[in-house]
């Protein structure tokens, strides 16, 4: 099987490619990635001899048409993915997340190629802090940020191409991922690399916002379950019952680093900051028989800390620039 992975040099995509090459000798992988600030060729070093990396944009229709025409399956990870960046400049989010997804859909429609669209739980907006309520596939779309609204729009394009044109597509909406190769602009690797540098972690606002954490390998095993066993036209929510407040995550990291529990700073809150995300993944578990492997969040975090300690060369180059960007917004 020939698989085209868009965004395969980014965090989740690179983990997906590495896992796929390791576990599926029958699959040949081509990566299409624009290598933006978030993409890193070296994230595929371990599998470079088994993977073709094409540097280019998913908005480039002739290139997309050619690569899709050579594939049996497209797994679409490529996106502008950071909420804070989308508040500073939404324009690349509209281009990549909306126009890029549209370009891919037109190509899979023309060539009759199976498509899996990677999306986020943020399309559903947020939940109150103190309720047992969780997102389900029936929760109405209600995105808050330029990032999540462009992801919501891309999901709706996929649904329309399934219904109107019979495109063979599935969608997954996953909660917050953590693990190796995540860009250090994101919450967990930002705090981990701060702590490695002896800098105090930075919590937006009071730090009470809740995210539902899943290890990236569990996200990717769920994606393969959906590709192999999911029903075309359907949406699957991916989550591993990993709810934790940002404050809890920072306290756990401080403990792993042997630092005082109050050794952090509160900084300017994010505009429109979603309060809580929580996923009900029972459909994935019952219908497709999927289960996560990383069920101990502290253990997963400790392994992630070790990875960043051992791979300083991978992230060091981006640290000063990333922090300078945050400093400009008081974060
Ligand atoms: P990332 O920012 O780490 O990686 C995105 C990749 O896409 C990069 O390699 C980048 O170079 C590439 N890219 C960007 N614009 C492109 C373009 N125009 N053409 C081709 N490639 C382009 O993002 P991530 O965290 O790995 O997220 C991957 C996908 O998973 C996204 O669709 C995101 O919405 C979704 N998602 C992420 C999370 C999370 O917690 N990180 C959770 C749920 C869903
Ligand atoms: O320094 C920080 N301090 C802080 O308190 C940063 C960078 C973030 N935060 C907070 C904001 C969020 O409540 O931590 C939480 C997580 O922040 P991010 O890592 O930016 O993730 P989030 O905005 O929740 O979105 C992530 O999960 C869903 C991914 O970036 C998205 O791509 C995915 O769709």
Taking the sheet with the most strands, its summary is: 7 strands, parallel
By DSSP, the count of extended strands is 13
- Roughly how many Å is the radius of gyration? 19 Å
What is the CATH superfamily label of the domain at 2-178 and 214-238?
NAD(P)-binding Rossmann-like Domain
**What is the chain-wise order of helices and strands?**
EHEEHEHHEHEEHEEEHEEHEHHH
C-alpha geometry: globular
Q: Roughly how many Å apart are the termini? A: 45 Å
Uncertain segments are none
At CATH level 3, the topology of the domain at 2-178 and 214-238 is Rossmann fold
Query: Helix tally?
Result: 11
Distinct small molecules: nicotinamide-adenine-dinucleotide, thymidine-5'-diphospho-beta-D-xylose
Enzyme class: lyase
Domain NAD(P)-binding: 4-302
Pfam family, one: GDP_Man_Dehyd
Organism: Promicromonospora vindobonensis
Explain this structure to me?
InterPro entries: dTDP_Gluc_deHydtase, NAD(P)-bd_dom, NAD(P)-bd_dom_sf. Its EC number is 4.2.1.46. Residues 4-302 form the NAD(P)-binding domain. It holds the Pfam family GDP_Man_Dehyd. Belongs to the NAD(P)-dependent epimerase/dehydratase family. dTDP-glucose dehydratase subfamily. The longest helix is centred in the N-terminal third of the chain and has 21 residues, at 91-111. Helix 1 crosses helix 7 (216-229) and helix 2 crosses helix 4. It contains eleven helices and 13 strands. It has a domain at 2-178 and 214-238: Rossmann fold (3-Layer(aba) Sandwich). The protein starts with a strand and ends with a helix. The chain is 43% helix and 16% strand. The chain has 331 residues and is α/β, with parallel strands linked by helices. The chain has helices at residues 11-23, 61-69, 83-88, 91-111, 146-165, 187-196, 216-229, 246-256, 282-288, 297-310, 312-328, and strands at 2-6, 28-33, 51-55, 73-76, 114-120, 169-174, 177-178, 202-204, 210-212, 214-215, 235-238, 243-245, 265-267.
């Amino acid at each position: 099987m020939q698989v085209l992975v868009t965004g395969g040099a980014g965090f989740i995509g690179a983990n997906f490619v590495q896992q796929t090459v390791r576990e599926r000798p029958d699959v040949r992988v081509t990566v299409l990635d624009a290598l933006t600030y978030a993409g890193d060729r070296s994230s595929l070093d371990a599998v470079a001899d088994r993977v073709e990396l094409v540097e280019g944009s998913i908005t480039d229709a002739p290139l997309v048409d050619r690569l899709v025409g050579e594939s049996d399956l497209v797994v679409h990870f490529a996106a502008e993915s950071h909420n804070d960046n989308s508040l500073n400049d939404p324009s690349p989010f509209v281009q990549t997340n909306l126009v890029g997804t549209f370009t891919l859909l037109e190509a899979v429609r023309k060539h009759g190629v199976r498509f899996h669209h990677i999306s986020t739980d943020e399309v559903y907006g947020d939940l109150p802090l103190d309720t047992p309520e969780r997102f389900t596939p029936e929760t109405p779309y209600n995105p808050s940020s330029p990032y999540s609204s462009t992801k919501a729009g891309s999901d709706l394009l996929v649904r329309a191409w399934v219904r109107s044109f019979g495109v063979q597509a599935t969608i997954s909406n996953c909660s917050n991922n953590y693990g190796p190769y995540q860009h250090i602009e994101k919450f967990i690797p930002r705090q981990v690399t701060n702590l490695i540098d002896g800098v105090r972690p930075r919590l937006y606002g009071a730090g009470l916002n809740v995210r539902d954490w899943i290890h990236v390998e569990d996200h990717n095993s769920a994606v393969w379950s959906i590709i192999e066993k999911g029903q075309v036209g359907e949406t699957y929510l991916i989550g591993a019952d990993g709810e934790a407040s940002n404050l809890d995550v920072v306290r756990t990291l401080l403990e792993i680093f042997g630092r005082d529990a109050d050794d952090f700073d509160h900084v300017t809150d994010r505009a429109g900051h979603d309060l809580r995300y929580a996923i009900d993944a029972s459909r994935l578990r019952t219908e497709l028989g999927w289960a996560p492997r990383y069920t101990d969040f502290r253990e997963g975090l400790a392994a992630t800390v070790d990875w960043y300690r051992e791979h300083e060369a991978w992230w060091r180059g981006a640290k000063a620039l990333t922090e300078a960007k945050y400093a400009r917004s008081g974060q």
